[in-house]
């Protein structure tokens, strides 16, 4: 069943990727799921915020179609070569090389980025992107020095501390993991139906996690999947929580892409999450 659902996530995601190659926003939008909450994000510099990164978003099929129309006025996508591809029952995450055409000049060039596609029943639930945030101005990755990937090792260790802070409901440590003007666009678990939280800065991040832990008491957070790179970290986490108002024990998964700044702080974060369900034990099969 896991393999079947993972293949389905890949099929729906690649149907969308191939539609991107048509450059037709209407064909691209047709690959979105119907009758389900949609979330599309892309981190871009904002003139209104002094060049700091902010997320351009879309939360309806029409808004997402408009985002693709806007992007195609600048860039066309003509290819995608996945160097990394993680498929699960509810998303596909991929790091790869895109073949781009600059609309104004016709110049063709390649660039590397990372993207995530949550999936629904009949299409993707959106496209979550950090762009090239975390990479060097010339598009290269931050260099590792020495025999070991010390920066990646530090990113990994600090992410372990971040998971521990989530388990402990330690808002100060969670906020401190982000740079001062960090932007986040993630699933908002403060609303009954899936919605997109799009905020920036320590004060807004602190407010969100303070309210989240007022709603849920964290019982456990466990790692499902992770990729630690020099410029980003991706992680899928399984949460087990107690809803304080009802006493119900619930479980859900989150999956986030986190770009890393030169000081290894989270620069921009985007991600998705599954709906909370009643938690139950899943006994492991005997070997």
Strand proportion, as a percent range, falls in 35-45%
| Rg | 19 Å
Major sheet characteristics: 7 strands, mixed
Number of strands: 13
- The backbone outline, from C-alpha atoms, is globular
* Secondary-structure element pattern, one letter each: HHEEHEEEEHHEEHEEEEE
Output the structural class: alpha+beta
Number of helices: 6
* Low-pLDDT residue spans: none
N- to C-terminal separation? 19 Å
Binned, the helix content reads: 25-40%
Mean pLDDT: 96
Layout of strands and helices, then pairs:
Layout: H1 2-20, H2 25-29, E1 40-45, E2 53-58, H3 61-72, E3 75-87, E4 91-102, E5 108-118, E6 128-129, H4 150-167, H5 171-176, E7 178-188, E8 195-200, H6 202-215, E9 216-228, E10 232-243, E11 249-260, E12 266-273, E13 277-278
Parallel strand pairs: 1-6, 7-12
Antiparallel strand pairs: 1-2, 3-4, 4-5, 5-6, 7-8, 9-10, 10-11, 11-12, 11-13
């Amino acid at each position: 069943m896991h393999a079947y659902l993972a293949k389905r996530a890949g099929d729906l995601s690649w149907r969308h990727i191939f539609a991107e190659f048509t450059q037709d926003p209407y064909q691209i939008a047709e690959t979105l799921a119907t009758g389900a909450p949609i979330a599309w994000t892309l981190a871009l510099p904002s003139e209104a915020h002094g060049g700091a990164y902010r997320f351009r978003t879309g939360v309806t099929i029409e808004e997402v179609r408009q985002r693709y129309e806007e992007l195609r006025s600048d860039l066309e996508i003509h290819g995608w070569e996945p160097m990394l591809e993680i498929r699960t029952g509810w998303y596909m995450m991929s790091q790869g090389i895109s073949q781009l055409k600059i609309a104004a000049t016709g110049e063709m060039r390649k660039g590397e980025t990372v993207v995530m596609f949550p999936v629904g029943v009949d299409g993707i639930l959106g496209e979550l992107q950090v762009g090239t945030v975390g990479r060097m101005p010339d598009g290269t990755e931050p260099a590792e020095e020495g025999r070991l990937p010390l920066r990646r090792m530090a990113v990994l260790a600090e992410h372990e501390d971040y998971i521990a802070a989530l388990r402990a409901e330690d808002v100060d440590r969670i906020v401190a993991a982000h740079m001062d003007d960090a932007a986040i666009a993630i699933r908002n678990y403060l609303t009954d139906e899936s919605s997109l939280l799009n905020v920036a800065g320590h004060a807004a991040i602190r407010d969100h996690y303070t309210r989240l832990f007022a709603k849920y008491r964290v019982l456990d957070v466990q790692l499902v999947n992770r990729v630690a790179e020099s410029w980003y970290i991706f992680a899928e986490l399984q949460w087990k929580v107690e809803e304080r108002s009802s006493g119900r024990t619930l479980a859900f998964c989150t999956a986030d892409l986190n770009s890393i700044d030169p000081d290894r702080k989270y620069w921009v974060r985007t991600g998705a999450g599954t709906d909370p369900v009643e938690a139950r034990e899943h006994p492991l099969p005997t070997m």
